[in-house]
């Protein structure tokens, strides 16, 4: 006859359950729960193009059908045209200060580059330096710009100097470069490395922490006090615009997305180089590389200014641009 085993005492039962609740067990579940909560908080669907346009188009916005894209463009004022190209992780809104300051005398034209802002992704997912140069020429042709001044910041400056150096059309009258890439050592951030990693890069199409936008803006600005909630929200929303996050991973996958810097020596138009002294993205020392290699170039470096001088110091930069365009340098 089998003798039944005695029932565990309450103390033995408690010890059994406490065994499951070991420190390592709790730590693993805490990490998993935290990760799940973080993913839930930072998982964002695309913002439909129509909603983004309704929120961020300007009274003088236009949409031009160029290269099978509806390109967001802003045209203000009359006079000699000046075409403005923004940096990566930015949009034509970066030129608001210059538009207000220069449109009394110039036709100020700014565009959202393919992969950014309200223009959205390139239809073929192409983001090479050569595509952007071709796109710039298409914009000038579409707007019937036979002669124009050209300015660019960051990525836009790279497009501008590449176009000015290699184009044989003679359309560029004067060139303005703000924090231009070209001579700095090429580095890959952790985010760029993730964007190139299969499977993980697809997650970046949905996982977008708003806090990362705040960190990015505090990096490009010298004065963190200028990084307002509305500024962060605009950059965040425009990144969520349908197709823009995939465009980011597509751009990151291009192994060498910049033209050789040596071609800047071919630039033969009057050139103004502007840089922020507190630029942590591209050191101001590279301003002198451009200054030495572009014949007759003028250089201005601004104190207490970061990577986007036209945003952080719009009054002084626009004043210097006006003087340069008027031949007062």
Order of helices and strands: HHHEEEHEHEHEHHHHHEHEHH
The overall average pLDDT, rounded, is 90
Q: Please name the CATH topology.
A: Rossmann fold
Number of domains: 1
Whole-number radius of gyration? 25 Å
What topology, given as strand order, has the largest sheet? 1-2-4-3-5-6-7-8
- At CATH level 2, the architecture is 3-Layer(aba) Sandwich
Description:
The structure is a single chain. With 329 residues, the chain is α/β, with parallel strands linked by helices. It has a single domain (49-188, 209-242, 256-325), classed as Rossmann fold. Helices cover 42% and strands 15% of the residues. Strands 1-2-4-3-5-6-7-8 form an eight-stranded mixed sheet, sandwiched between helices. Helix 6 links the parallel strand 5 (148-153) and strand 6. Helix 4 (96-102) packs across helix 14 (314-325) and helix 9 (210-220) crosses helix 10. The mean pLDDT is 90.
What descriptive keywords fit this protein?
single chain, 329 residues, alpha/beta, Rossmann fold, eight-stranded mixed sheet
Compact description:
Helix content is 42%, strand content 15%.
Task: Produce the secondary structure layout.
Blueprint: H1 10-20, H2 23-42, H3 49-56, E1 61-66, E2 69-76, E3 80-85, H4 96-102, E4 106-111, H5 129-142, E5 148-153, H6 155-166, E6 172-178, H7 190-195, H8 200-203, H9 210-220, H10 229-240, H11 244-252, E7 271-276, H12 285-293, E8 298-302, H13 309-312, H14 314-325
Helix pairs in contact: 4-14, 5-6, 9-10
């Amino acid at each position: 006859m089998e003798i039944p085993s005695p029932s565990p005492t309450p103390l033995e039962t408690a010890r059994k359950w406490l065994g499951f609740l070991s420190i390592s067990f709790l730590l693993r579940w805490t990490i998993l729960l935290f990760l799940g909560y973080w993913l839930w908080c930072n998982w964002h669907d695309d913002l439909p193009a129509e909603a983004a346009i309704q929120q961020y188009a300007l009274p003088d916005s236009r949409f031009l059908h160029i290269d099978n894209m509806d390109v967001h463009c802003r045209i203000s004022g009359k006079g000699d045209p000046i075409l403005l190209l923004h940096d990566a992780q930015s949009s034509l809104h970066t030129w608001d200060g210059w538009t207000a300051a220069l449109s009394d005398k110039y036709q100020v034209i700014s565009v959202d580059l393919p992969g950014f802002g309200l223009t959205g992704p390139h239809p073929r997912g192409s983001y090479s330096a050569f595509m952007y140069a071709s796109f710039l020429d298409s914009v000038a042709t579409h707007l019937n710009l036979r002669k124009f001044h050209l300015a660019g910041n960051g990525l836009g400056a790279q497009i501008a100097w590449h176009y000015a150096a290699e184009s044989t059309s003679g359309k560029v009258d004067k060139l303005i470069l703000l924090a231009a890439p070209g001579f700095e050592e090429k580095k890959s951030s952790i985010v760029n490395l993730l964007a190139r990693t299969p499977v993980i890069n697809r997650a970046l199409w949905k996982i977008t922490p708003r806090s990362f936008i705040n960190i990015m803006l505090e990096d490009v600005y010298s004065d963190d006090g200028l990084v307002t909630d509305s500024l962060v929200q605009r950059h965040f929303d425009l990144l969520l615009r349908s197709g823009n996050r995939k465009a980011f991973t597509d751009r990151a996958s291009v192994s060498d997305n910049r033209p050789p810097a040596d071609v800047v020596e071919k630039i033969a138009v009057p050139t103004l180089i502007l840089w922020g002294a507190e630029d942590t993205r591209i050191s101001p020392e590279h301003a002198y590389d451009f200054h030495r290699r572009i014949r007759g170039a003028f250089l201005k470096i601004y104190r207490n200014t970061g990577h986007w001088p036209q945003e952080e110091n719009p009054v002084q930069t626009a004043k210097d641009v006006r003087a340069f365009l008027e031949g007062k340098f």
